[in-house]
Design brief:
The complex is a heteropentamer, with 2 copies of chain A (about 280 residues), 2 copies of chain B (about 325 residues) and 1 copy of chain C (about 280 residues).
Chain A lengths: L9 E12 L2 E12 L3 E5 L6 H8 L7 E6 L2 E2 L2 E4 L2 E4 L2 H9 L1 E4 L11 H11 L5 H14 L15 H13 L5 E5 L7 H16 L4 E4 L3 H7 L2 E6 L2 E6 L1 H6 L4 H27 L6
Parallel strand pairs in A: 3-10, 3-11, 8-9, 9-10
Antiparallel strand pairs in A: 1-2, 1-4, 4-5, 6-7, 11-12
Helix pairs in contact in A: 3-4, 3-5, 4-5, 5-6
Chain B lengths: L1 H14 L12 H23 L5 H8 L2 H33 L4 H16 L2 H15 L4 E4 L3 H8 L6 E5 L1 H4 L2 H27 L2 H9 L4 H31 L12 H12 L2 H29 L12 H11 L3
Chain C lengths: L25 H5 L3 H6 L1 E6 L2 E2 L3 E3 L6 E2 L1 H13 L2 E6 L4 H8 L4 E2 L7 H6 L1 E15 L15 E5 L3 H14 L5 E5 L2 H10 L4 E5 H10 L4 E17 L4 H17 L1 H8 L15
Parallel strand pairs in C: 1-5, 1-6, 8-9, 8-10
Antiparallel strand pairs in C: 2-3, 3-4, 6-11, 7-10, 7-11
The structure holds adenosine-5'-triphosphate (ATP) (2 copies) and magnesium ion (2 copies).
One adenosine-5'-triphosphate (ATP) binds next to strand 2 and helix 1 of chain E.
Chain lengths: ~280, ~325, ~280, ~325, ~280
């Protein structure tokens, strides 16, 4: 149990992670590892603790039990003389800056342009030169396909564009690890594709990512590993095809067939409408 | 087999880290602030109790004087009540005028509000008390306007006024207090009432008219009850402010008023600190009661609007983390 | 900051140097309380809204008036300057007791209640006088004021002692007393007819009559002539006695009378200056 | 053929009703109201111009007096500026204390706010002017707290104070004015600052910290700029209110102040109506200027929040229909 | 052009109706008739003036030109001595009470329960006895399937339930004509059905209705006549099958194929999701 315990080569190693809010135990001993350049998709019903797990990694919440290492550092605590000490705020900020996080509700800074959003952390956290930060920010905006929107305020951008700026903002700190918490669930269906596209190319470039998502298609195509959580524990994990198509656990199967059913139901209304007009003469 | 499994479990349990019991970060700066504040508080307490100038028994005696209690009930509470009634009624009328399509009504309402919101109340009350009789030496008459001109033209004599009010009676004492503060309050309430009416979704008005309600009916039964949600909280604040502003009546002057009465005792007994303290204690008590009343009213008027009262706690916690960095 | 604007709105008897040169008396100077001595000035609390005794000059800063001229001369005897600090009227006596002011000079009429609280040195005799609108349309008689509306400055002797005695005789037909925070408001109330009459110290009434430009007239005699007194801390009786001496010297030199006549108030001159008469 | 079509069209056009040109409903009540108001306005105007008591030349003269202008600049405007600076700084500190997780800081902030919001400003200023010297007869000393007790215990003599401020100097005149009104304003600003900080979405704070900002940084660069949108409009209102409340300094008293100076002229010349009028005119002018400034500030601070300034016109029109029924 | 000109048997007769907002001419001479017990569906692209036309019938806007009769009365004006006079507010209110209107955003009165919403107009406009009004209101709530929600406030009801209460509220005045302005477009897909169901049964009972809707399926099934508007004019009208499947005008065809295309696109995402999980073992 030394601090230097990820010599194993894992980028993220979570051991017996538990978290309670008052009486409510939300995570009940989660173990998980993520290798460098690996893409892990987290799946699970609402309330299963997926968001909480990501927030623990990024220290938006404090651990109740267990340990999380990112790289070679224990997250949130330092061990001195055999006791854990809470890290100082400065140290926590430094650890966070090594991890990029993208939220469901993009949380762009509304009083800054897209460019300023992306430059903010490099300039004020890394103390990078403005000119250099601007250069890099423009490159990142180019990468997410928004070089022509640099001077727009968030309110002037569509949801999909905002989410892509948020991704660029997280990438600007050159994080070792990217966390995505349902990055497309607040988007209109026609905007989902553009955000998933950006994430797909990030994955191709070898970015280490943990992605909470309900986009089963994306998970099947991009993920190296799929982890299914329920009730605060990891129920099963494995390759996408294993977990999504041949789940071993009953809970996984129930969840996936409900997802499937909902999609089918949603499709039905539109299909019917289209069918009504099927006879429409061209 | 079972033994082996158990042993393995035990081993694993040992290896698996359990509950976290970490040494928290010491916030020395924060505790220093607490220490300083505690000492200051102790000094304040020490002063309040042991400084003979405060003379608490005398404070209680002052609070118990008949004219002081009378001043509190009449000059402070009753005046507050009456001015707020006047203010709310006047404010709603002014708001409706302000939202009228008639430019004359609109500008008059604007000018009234502008004037009364621009002049300090103490100046207003001083002028009312001292100058109204000079401005209206013949009193304020109800009758045919410009009658003297008309009578002159027609070659008649006499006047065409059926009721003349003495400006000095009208604008002094209790009547003057209520009129002056009420007229001023109407200007403030007008803005509040206007905001309240405008806050109600246009669709509500339309839905009411669609089922055949008249404009007046839909105003009274649909729009105003919903506007109340927006109007009541600031009206509570206005009431508290008005209660405090009755102390300005010393400029009118209204003698049957709390602050005037304690000042009188102070100047008579030369015990000015405990005398003023008596007023301070009363103001603290009444404001506190009004604040409780207001929070009750706010809750009452949220009826039917779902769970708008979101937990501020999570927000507050973030704010606190942010605010007290280092 | 105040380079703009004029100072054209006069009152009366605008500031002129004290009429006679006053010489310092070293014996008296020795009797100054230590605090005054070391500061070289006397801090005097005054309510500068009481023309002609004490009011602000047209510069909006300098306190002027009969009280000012006379007491400046007294201070000159001690070889110190006077720092005139405008205050509200009520807290002056308490302010002297509490050390906020070294003295109070603000047309304080000497009475028993005040004497219990502080030392008072008599320096002028003022009576109470009534005034009403010119021509006395309401037929005001000070001796039968029951039922009248009477304006008065609040916390003055007139409000606290004179009127209550009259009130007691009135029974049901009470005097309607209008206590204003300033004498100007009380005077205006009479000019406007809000009040039927007012009563105040005689110097004030005669000044008001003069300033009103024929709108007011005095009614009845000056009565209850009582001395004005300087307010001094109870434990500074020695200093009070020294002030009596200074007044006597000023009287002898003629500068006492000169200070009063500058404001047309020589009628109020006294000669029996005393501590707590 | 063509002829026939044209004829048919002409016929149809005649039969088909065109633009509507209808006689509107007469709103007699509304016009009566306008008439009454117009007459009242004429009477007001007549009075303002022809009533000799207003004496406009004298009003202008009073407005042009050096001490009046001086009082306006120093006692009214400068005091307003300084108290608002004190109030905003104090208010933000109090707000941060109020949102702290430390119960001592939280309750001190609450108690401070409660006290200063409960006591009328005129009472506060009167007490400051009259009683502070009595309450702190030895002045206010900076040094070791409870030194007299400690020295007594230790059997020493002397004192451990390195700076003693005279309470009379501290709490009177210009200094007293700024301290008193500033301390009071801080209590009001605290609520405003708190609401502003709480109004910023929690996600903003989290997003800032997620990119590695410290709590202080995210407060200063992310939360406060957004809180400004909520803080600025009521701060503008507070400034206007404060400007008017400088007239209360007559209770301290602060002589270099507008209302005190016009009162002094009134008391010297017995021309009280035009003297007070001079102050009223100044207050009207300054408030109007401040109001314009405020609306500019409000617009300025909407930056980056999209088109939040929705057209109130449609709403106002409905309101007006509703309000002026019949 | 006499006032009594609907002896023709039409319940609604609109002749050459035009409406301008300032410079902007929104309706440019619309003619339309609706017979008693007829259901007319109004279709058209956004901005074509459908809402404006309904609002003119119910006098939420004032006519710029043309005439509308409902029953035997001219709407909004009276003809006296050969001139039109604007009706008094009272008279307008009376005319409105003969027409029920259901809005896109239900506009229930939030400070009243469902029952009070329905009782409001009978009690305060018709001056009906409270007991009787309550009786009728409960029957109407029963009719829209909400008798168990009578005491709920709007905020406690789902969108579909709110819209059904709004329908009951409009029915409570026993109107001769019901106007619906996209009554389902603010609803989540799964709630659309319940509202359309209520409208379907109203149509069956013979209620005269004008319905603005994009629910082509509903229009095809329920409408007696479909009217297609564009650019402030009626482009074509006829039986549902005529207009929806064999449109004569190019504009109608373009519009309908766009509707169809959008539905197909919407269906696609869901279908794909379902297909990803197609292999899911049961
Ligand atoms: N700050 C908090 N205080 C108390 N309970 C919380 C808090 N945050 C989360 N929870 C609870 O923890 C549980 C797990 O929440 P979490 O957000 O991690 O679920 P999730 O898997 O992300 O669900 P979803 O798919 O709905 O986002 C929920 O029951 C939630 O109510
Ligand atoms: N009160 C108004 N003032 C000015 N213009 C208006 C007003 N109401 C509607 N319009 C304009 O009239 C045109 C027609 O609007 P209308 O709402 O009738 O269209 P619609 O066919 O109902 O469209 P949608 O399908 O989007 O509801 C639009 O261009 C709109 O901008
Ligand atoms: Mg979640
Ligand atoms: Mg529409």
């Amino acid at each position: 149990m030394s601090e230097q315990s990820t010599t194993s080569g894992h980028l993220v190693r979570a051991v017996n992670v538990s978290k309670s809010f008052g009486e409510n135990e939300v995570l009940k001993g989660v173990d998980m590892t993520v290798d460098r350049r690996e893409v892990v998709c987290l799946l699970g019903p609402s309330g299963s603790g997926k968001t909480t797990f990501l927030r623990l990694i990024n220290q938006m919440e404090t651990l109740t039990g267990g340990r999380i290492w990112v790289g070679d550092e224990l997250i949130g605590f330092v061990e001195r003389n055999g006791r854990l000490h809470v890290r100082k705020d400065k140290d926590i900020a430094r650890q966070r800056s090594r991890i990029g996080m993208v939220f469901q509700r993009f949380n762009l800074f509304p009083h800054m342009t897209a460019l300023e959003n992306v430059m903010e952390a490099p300039v004020h956290v890394k103390r990078m030169q403005r000119a250099k930060a601007r250069q890099e920010a423009l490159e990142l905006l180019e990468q997410v396909g928004l070089s022509d929107r640099a001077r727009y305020y968030p309110a002037q951008l569509s949801g999909g564009q905002q989410q892509r700026v948020a991704i660029a903002r997280a990438l600007a700190m050159r994080p070792e690890l990217m966390l995505f918490d349902e990055p497309t669930s607040a988007l209109d269906p026609e905007l989902v594709g553009e955000v998933l596209g950006v994430m797909r190319s990030l994955a191709k470039e070898g970015t280490t990512m943990i992605v909470v998502t309900h986009e089963v298609g994306f998970a099947r195509e991009v993920a190296d590993r799929v982890v299914f959580m329920d009730g605060g524990v990891v129920v099963e994990e494995g390759s996408p095809d294993e977990v999504l198509l041949r789940p071993r656990e009953a809970r996984t199967r129930t969840f996936l067939s409900r997802v499937k059913q909902e999609a089918e139901l949603g499709a039905q209304h539109d299909v019917e409408l289209a069918r009504t007009l099927e006879g429409l003469e061209r | 087999m079972t033994e082996k499994v158990e042993a393995e479990q035990a081993l694993q349990q040992e290896e698996r880290p359990g509950r976290i019991d970490a040494v928290p970060v010491r916030h020395y700066g924060r505790w220093l602030a607490v220490a300083v504040i505690t000492v200051l508080l102790l000094m304040l307490l020490n002063m309040l109790i042991f400084n003979p100038v405060f003379n608490w028994p005398f404070v209680l005696e002052v609070m118990n004087q008949a004219p002081v209690i009378d001043g509190l009930l009449k000059g402070t509470l009753l005046v507050t009540l009456l001015t707020m009634v006047l203010g709310v009624v006047g404010g709603v009328i002014l708001a409706v005028m302000r939202l009228s399509e008639n430019p004359v009504l609109r500008s008059v309402s604007w000018a009234y509000t502008w004037f009364f919101r621009s002049v300090p109340r103490i100046v207003l009350l001083t002028i009312m008390g001292a100058a109204m009789g000079l401005i209206f030496p013949q009193g304020i008459a109800l009758g045919v306007p410009f009658d003297w001109k008309l009578i002159d033209w027609l070659g008649l004599s006499g006047d065409w006024r059926f009721l003349t009010l003495d400006a000095n009676t009208l604008f002094s004492g209790f009547m003057g207090a209520v009129l002056g503060l009420g007229a001023s309050e109407a200007a403030y309430m007008a803005e509040i009432a206007r905001a309240g009416i405008l806050s109600v979704d246009v669709g509500q008005q339309e839905a009411a008219q669609a089922v055949g309600m008249s404009r007046r009916q839909s105003m009274i039964r649909i729009v105003l009850p919903q506007a109340m949600r927006v109007i009541v909280p600031p009206t509570g604040n206005e009431t508290i402010a008005m209660m405090k502003d009755t102390s300005l009546l010393i400029a009118l002057p209204l003698t049957a008023e709390l602050f005037y009465q304690v000042s009188a005792i102070g100047s008579r007994t030369y015990q000015i600190v405990p005398s003023y303290l008596a007023a301070v204690v009363y103001y603290l008590v009444i404001t506190s009661i009004l604040m409780v009343g207001q929070s009750y009213l706010e809750r009452r008027f949220g009826r039917g609007f779902g769970t708008t009262v979101k937990s501020d706690k999570a927000k507050a916690e973030i704010g606190l983390q942010a605010g007290l960095a280092k | 900051l105040s380079a703009c604007g004029s100072n054209s709105l006069g009152g009366s008897g605008n500031s002129a140097a004290p009429s006679t040169k006053v010489s310092v008396n070293a014996d008296l100077a020795a009797k100054l309380p230590a605090k005054i001595k070391s500061a070289g000035e006397i801090v005097v609390g005054t309510d500068a809204t009481y023309a002609p005794n004490e009011f602000l000059d047209t510069d909006g800063k300098t306190v002027i008036g009969m009280d000012v001229d006379l007491f400046d001369a007294v201070a000159a005897k001690f070889g110190v300057k006077v720092e005139w600090q405008p205050s509200k009227f009520d807290p002056i006596i308490v302010g002297v007791e509490g050390g906020k002011f070294d003295m109070g000079v603000s047309s304080f009429t000497i009475n028993d209640k005040r004497k219990q609280q502080v030392n008072m040195v008599s320096y002028f005799s003022a009576g109470t006088e009534w005034a009403t609108q010119a021509g006395n349309p309401k037929k005001v008689d000070p001796n039968n004021a029951c039922g009248l509306k009477v304006a008065v400055q609040s916390k003055t002797v007139q409000e606290e002692e004179d009127l209550p005695v009259r009130q007691a005789k009135c029974g049901k037909n009470k005097i309607n007393i209008l206590p204003f925070s300033g004498q100007d408001q009380a005077t205006s109330a009479v000019v406007s007819g809000r009040a039927d009459a007012m009563l105040a110290d005689s110097p004030v009434v005669s000044y008001a009559v003069k300033q009103s430009g024929g709108k007011l007239e005095a009614v009845g005699e000056i009565y209850d002539a009582a001395p004005y007194g300087y307010v001094i801390k109870k434990d500074q009786t020695e200093f009070a006695n020294a002030i009596v001496e200074a007044l006597k010297e000023l009287d002898a030199e003629g500068s006492y009378k000169a200070a009063l006549s500058k404001w047309g108030l020589e009628n109020g001159a006294i000669s029996d200056f005393a501590v707590n008469p």
